[in-house]
Design a protein that fits this description.
Layout (H helix, E strand, L loop, with lengths): L4 E10 L6 H21 L4 E8 L3 H9 L4 H18 L6 E4 L3 H16 L3 E11 L4 E3 L17 E10 L5 H10 L4 E2 L1 H13 L5 E2 L1 E3 L8 E2 L2 E6 L1 H6 L1 H4 L3 E2 L5 E2 L7 E8 L3 H14 L7 E5 L2 E2 L15 H8 L1 H10 L7 E2 L2 H31 L11 H16 L12 H22 L1 H6 L3 H22 L4 H11 L21
Parallel strand pairs: 1-2, 1-14, 2-3, 7-15, 14-15, 16-17
Antiparallel strand pairs: 4-5, 4-6, 6-8, 9-11, 10-11, 12-13
The structure holds 5'-O-[(L-methionyl)-sulphamoyl]adenosine.
The site of 5'-O-[(L-methionyl)-sulphamoyl]adenosine (MSP) has 19 residues, from strand 1, helix 1, helix 7 and strand 14.
Length: 505
Amino acid sequence: MTKKKFYITTPIYYVNASPHIGHSYTTIAADTLSRYKREALGEGNVWFLTGTDEHGQKIQRAAEEAKLSPKAFVDRVVVQFKGLWKTLNISYNDFIRTTEERHIKTVQRFLDILYKNGDIYEDKYEGWYCTPCETFWPPSQITEAVCPDCKRTLEKISETNYFFKLSKYQDWLIGYIEKNGLFIEPQIRRNEVLSFLKLNKLIDLCISRPQERLSWGIPLPFSPGHVTYVWFDALINYISAVGEFDEKNRFNSAWWEPEVEVIHLIGKDILRQHAIYWPIMLQAAGIRQPDTVFAHGWWMIDQDKMSKSRGNVVNPIDMVSKFGLDVYRYFLLSDVQFGYDGNFSEEAIIKRFNGDLANDLGNLVYRTLTMAEKYFQGNVPGKDQLDEQGKRIEDKIKALPSEITVSFNAKACFNFSLGLEKIWDLVNMANKYVEETKPWNLAKENKETELKSFIRLMVDVIRAVAKHISPFMPQTSELIMAQLGTDKIKKDKPLFPRIEIDKPR
Ligand code: MSP
């Protein structure tokens, strides 16, 4: 069944540091998807949620370092995230912060329901703990006292905590993933999760931290001396932002009804939490599952991870001020197929800029509108007769709406780069057509009918391109549309003046 309503989410980002290109990637992808669905289905049928993850050790520590209270600290960093989303033209419908009352209330209610159902129990925990990752490691998964994820030294701890019965749901989850082919995407990630589940026995999840060790969190309703583990708290944002539990413990939300396609876009680093913890939490609370958890790849810098300690963190604002907003959006969505890792570099952006944007799209728009003004004073003529290639271009315009759907559906793995390639096929066909037709000769030879039809077709191409790039590059789309006008062409300056490699702007 194809659904007609969409609830699209990004991860909620930690506010312990400023946002970087990795954060902007998921958010730009979600924005592009939401814009397309709104255009196709109407504003009221799409809900796009993003937000911030504000509790936990990392934040508490960052606040201490900044000599601020945790709340004052998070309030400050949230402003940076919201500012960035404004700069990046992100059309979210709602922004959830985990320190908001609506979220805290839902998390506590959720915990209560699971506790009363017997899926949360108290136990003594003794073992290894990675404080920066906030993760307990069973002896079976470590070889020495080092965190398998971040490689930092583990601490030996012993304390009373609360545990969530993940293990009870292991067989159910395997069955669910096997039955629902689009639940985890791309397939490589689905296979990873399935083989992990089949080869390992799930260990119950420790969902509390004693107040003495961590105070910055949501108190457990049944044990106020403990706060909720930050991941258990964070995942619930996807429902706390859109609904509430009623007195019968049913979760009610227009955006979580069966007829809504719920899509969580995440990075591959947080797959385990979204593909194992979250479905089991929902199942235990009697709530339906999302339709798709899609894990995209990572942007690397010179094949290396981006991190504060390596000093190679790229700020999206710098990229936007250097190259322009839509160039940045276009680069992220076109340079790597969604789901794969990519290498981020300014050289790669400049290459895309000078090629796809300046030479191809920018040039097509500029030369066409120049001709329309020169030969027809900006009045778009009618179309009388097209040659074979002209007809092929016309067919391509008609085919585009269905060709670009690969970018916007889960089955095709939200293949943004392929959708863009389809649009650029048209751009390239049209540029080639200009070279072959040599309209300047048609003008010289007074071949009025051919020239009219040619210009008309080229304007149609540009209009189609502007329409279809709009979810990816909303500003550029508007700029082109404005030049096309409603009744008369009004050419503006070139959209993407080439960047000289020797002297980057
Ligand atoms: N707070 C958790 C998520 C909770 S969701 C219920 C978290 N936050 S985070 O600030 O660390 O951001 C994680 C997300 O940022 C990743 O899932 C991914 O979407 C994105 N990225 C962070 N670094 C990245 C790259 N270098 N490349 C691409 N995206 C990456 O985890």
